[in-house]
Specification:
Length: 220
């Protein structure tokens, strides 16, 4: 018993002291008081700036969009101070980059830095690419319900058309804030040029492509 170390001596002092039960009781009371008085919120608002960047490139394949638009902008967006994650997706004619900043970063300041970075690297856009669209997102903008449509009988185009009808019905609900369709094949037109007839009208393939590009618009 005489060879107790420093910790052993402190423990023996508390064991033999009559104040120990009082200290334990006071600690429990303080803990209960803290639990009772600490403010609580059912849905605390956590500031996590998230931004979607839409990079349109009409007429391009997903591989072209990824290599010519998404990757160059990803390398530049990583240079922004406070960026924690980058998520990207490429599909025909469109690339999407989701930028997530560190928790606690001011939303307005993060948007300003993002806009400045995109505008200062505007020359990275290849010919044929449209202007980038920046859409801020809230931490509450999360999917609540995801529906998957599949079939062994119908093709991707038919399934997307059916998904559009389902989305229209969901929009009629009072609690539905936003619906989005992913996947499937949207409606497309293929234009086949007749070289002799073009020559007869005095037109070139580039002129036809320019006319089609002017009529090809995507509106939100």
């Amino acid at each position: 018993m005489n060879n107790l170390g420093f910790a052993g001596k402190i423990a023996r002092a508390f064991i033999n002291s009559k104040l120990t039960p009082l200290i334990v009781g006071a600690s429990l009371l303080l803990g209960l008081f803290a639990v009772k008085m600490t403010p609580r919120e059912e849905e605390p608002q956590i500031v996590v700036p998230m931004v979607d960047i839409f990079l349109p490139m009409p007429g391009s394949s997903p591989q072209e969009v990824q290599e010519r638009v998404v990757k160059p902008f990803e390398s530049k967006l990583w240079e922004i101070k406070g960026v924690e994650y980058l998520y990207s997706m490429s599909r025909p004619g469109l690339g999407i980059i989701t930028v997530r900043f560190l928790v606690g970063q001011p939303m307005e300041e993060s948007l300003v830095k993002l806009y400045n970075k995109i505008m200062s690297n505007h020359t990275l856009l290849p010919p044929g690419a449209a202007e980038p669209l920046v859409v801020p997102k809230s931490i509450d903008d999360v999917p609540i319900l995801a529906l998957t449509l599949w079939s062994d009988r119908y093709d991707h185009g038919t399934l997307r058309t059916l998904a559009g009808e389902v989305a229209d019905e969901l929009k009629k609900s009072e609690n539905a804030a936003e619906t989005e369709i992913k996947g499937g094949l949207p409606r497309q037109l293929r234009v086949t040029l007749d070289a002799p007839r073009l020559a007869g009208y005095g037109l070139s393939a580039l002129q036809v492509a320019g006319a089609l590009k002017k009529g090809n618009s995507s509106l939100s």
